[in-house]
Amino acid sequence: MSFFSSLSEMIGISGKDSESGPKEDVKKETTVGETSGEFAEFSAFDLILTNQFADFNIDYLNPTPTQTIVPIAIRKMDAIAPPLSIYSWNLESNVWTKLLDAAGSCHSAVVIHPEKVVILGGIRDNACLDTVTTFILKQSALETQLDVPMKIARTRTAATFFKNILTVVGGWAKHKYLTSMEIYDDKNRVWYACAEMNKPRANAQLIAFEDTLYVFGGYSGREYEAEFERYDEAANKWIVEGKMAEPTAGFAACAFDEYIVLAGGWNNGNNTLNTIWAYAPKRKLWCKPFGSLEKPRKSFSMIVTEINGEETMCAIGG
Questions:
Q1: pTM of the full structure
Q2: pLDDT in tens, 105-116
Q3: Are 314 and 293 in contact (CB under 8 A)?
Q4: Which intervals carry biased composition (Basic and acidic residues) (predicted)?
Q5: Assigned domain for 258 exists
Q6: Is residue 275 part of a domain?
Q7: Pairs from 109-114 (Cβ < 8 Å, separation ≥ 24)
Q8: Over the stretch 194-243, which tens digit does the pLDDT of each residue have?
Q9: Domain of 129, in residue numbers
């Protein structure tokens, strides 16, 4: 039995990850730029229906009971704007309401889980942070919970829930790019060190897809990382799975249908991308079935949710 499976049984959790795997009704692949519908002119965040990204309008009004928590990250510290804001989103009326400005650090990892947002690490006053803060949505308000600090203080790290266990990899700390991995035992409130990645990575993305964990992209301190890795749970080992279509850091990612979707980011330190690449793990294939983002974005969030009965990707902030 793997370490994750043992820990899942020990702390009494079960079920699929919040980032879902492929659905039975897989959308047809299309060429870049091909559309299957018309979209109105909107602003503020990208919405994908079928195969085309378009902007969508935001109204800042009072929330109603049907909500999804969405974080909007701001990359740099600013005297006026906080580095992270958390909103509630009413899916039925497309109404957004700001719940909290989580000021005090930047370059933190942000993980969205049903009805909560977890913020990990970051940097403040030139010092890397080991802090873990969970914001839980309760009746249109946020309850703040300070969790046990990570074993290693880190910024620009990647995090997700894998088999409902909070998992962190990579980042930067003490002038070093990291390969380390940690997982959190929520019941006993303790972090465990796991397998080291093969490559150090900051500003990478960690994605759970069909009970498998992948890490993509990032910057190693010398180059933008082209290889991506798969976690072998039984052996507690990271394996180089292949090469990305385009080495990138600071992008957003999500699992959608049969794909792991990577969008935006940068690849030379001076640019911001609007490209969208999709990786099909079962076919080991890179493709472009979703066109491009309407606007170039980096350090933003992507979620998958159901809108009008259809599973939908949303790219937010940046």
A1: 0.80
A2: 788 998 987 778
A3: no
A4: 16-31
A5: no
A6: no
A7: 109/157, 109/158, 109/159, 109/168, 109/171, 110/71, 110/73, 110/84, 110/159, 110/301, 111/159, 111/160, 111/161, 111/166, 112/18, 112/69, 112/70, 112/71, 112/301, 112/303, 113/18, 113/161, 114/18
A8: 999 999 999 999 999 999 999 999 999 999 999 999 999 999 999 999 99
A9: 43-249
How many domains is the chain built from?
A: 1
The answer to the question of residue 227 being in a domain is: yes
How many angstroms separate the CA atoms of 302 and 292, rounded? 14
pLDDT above 60: residue 17: no
Structural tokens at position 125: 């006053």
295 found inside a domain: no
Rounded Cα–Cα distance for residues 166 and 168 (Å): 7
